[in-house]
Specification:
The protein is an alpha+beta fold and 89 residues long. It has one domain. Strand 2 and strand 3 form a beta hairpin. The longest helix is centred in the middle third of the chain and has 14 residues. 8% of the residues are buried.
Length: 89
């Protein structure tokens, strides 16, 4: 059995699956004006990650705690290497 966390930064969604079964999904809404202030989707990355982290911090359950811990690991990713991987390879 596998537990899988999926983060869709393009729409600011997070989901938790157990194998192929969706256990829970969360969506973070934000005003278009905030997103349009960024020149590219990649420039929105830190903003969207922070929005998801804030949403998870506000919830008080096991799902949120596990996702928050996984998201904290994402904050350690070198953004320049990620940009190169996504856009240049």
């Amino acid at each position: 059995m596998y537990n899988i966390m999926v983060i869709n930064l393009g729409s600011t969604k997070i989901a938790l699956f157990q194998d192929e079964a969706l256990l829970r999904q969360e969506n973070v809404d934000h005003p278009v004006e905030q997103i349009s202030a960024f020149p590219t989707v990649f420039d929105q990355l830190d903003f969207r990650l922070e929005m998801i982290l804030d949403m998870l911090k506000a919830k008080d359950d096991e799902y949120a705690r596990l996702c928050y811990e996984a998201m904290a690991l994402l904050n350690q990713i070198d953004r320049d290497r990620l940009r190169k991987f996504i856009f240049e390879e």
